[in-house]
Amino acid sequence: MVEGMREKPSRTAQHVALFRALESARGQPRLFTDPYAAASLPPSHRLVVAAARLPAAGPRLARRVERLIDRRWPGGPRASAVARTRLIDDLVTDALAAGARQLVLLGAGYDSRAYRLLAVRAGADPAAAGRGREAVDVYEVDHPATQARKRRLVERRVPAAARGHVRFVAADLLRVGAADVLLAAGLRPDAPAVVVWEGVTNYLDAASVDATLTGLAGALAPGSRVVFTYVDRRALDGTGTFSGVDEWAGTVRAAGEPFTFGLVPDELPGYLAARGLALTLDRSTRDAADRYLTPLGRGGEPAAPFYRVAQAEVVSRPAAAAATAETAVAAAPTRERATEAVPSAGQG
Length: 348
Description:
It is an enzyme of class 2 (transferase). Its EC number is 2.1.1.-. The chain is built from 15 helices and 7 strands. The chain is an alpha/beta fold and 348 residues long. It has a 7-stranded mixed β-sheet, sandwiched between helices.
């Protein structure tokens, strides 16, 4: 099953939200602050996070919970999740600094970047225009059932004025193409965008990943960036040796969300080139942990070398896709029309 694209709550998505909430409960310095992660958790998990925030015993309790998680899942899903979160945060911020003014959260799940990243939310501030900050249009794409839960959380926690830049695009991406629904929702194919596809590909099949990447390359403006996570295929087929992979794979399988797809890092540049994309970054979550956790004295926290974050840039657009994109530019709905057709978080 796909994280963030299913009828029932995803257990793996809730695990990642717990890991982000625990990281956010740490004192400074920490990798990030996600004030919304705990709201998506079941009551028992929220209680743990609330206790971790207590001034006295809270930090010790949080570290104890993290150590228990790391012992139970020695493959390192917790540290991998928080390290990849920070890495992707930085990649999104870099893309926006380079000129992208559209952010797509594909299979968004409980992702809160639209509301917590300064580079994204600053443009949503009504006073931002006076400070020369240009708004960022955010498209959160997810399964209708999952998105309904997410919207309720957002509407309870985020003021209406701080979410007017977000369009919720309800779609079952196992049945319809991501590029098609984005263009229909008002995404501008003539303006650069950054797409985040986090925690999803490892639950799909090869055809679905191929179709999504090819479709994005055909719909997005050249220079747009696609950030996605994937599992090293050698960890799945047994041709590589990775510590902790069996325990991690067993956990997600027991949750009904087994790993079903992977890529080989050495083959990734050619794989992407065949789909109109150029690889610009490929890092394991162990690499990310070394970059972000080690300077904080946390280099011993286990993170997976087989779980990876990649970034690719759109370099070409097939002729047929280019014609479709040009038509979409001409027919692109205004923000008001798009918001009416595709309900946004800003509506009541």
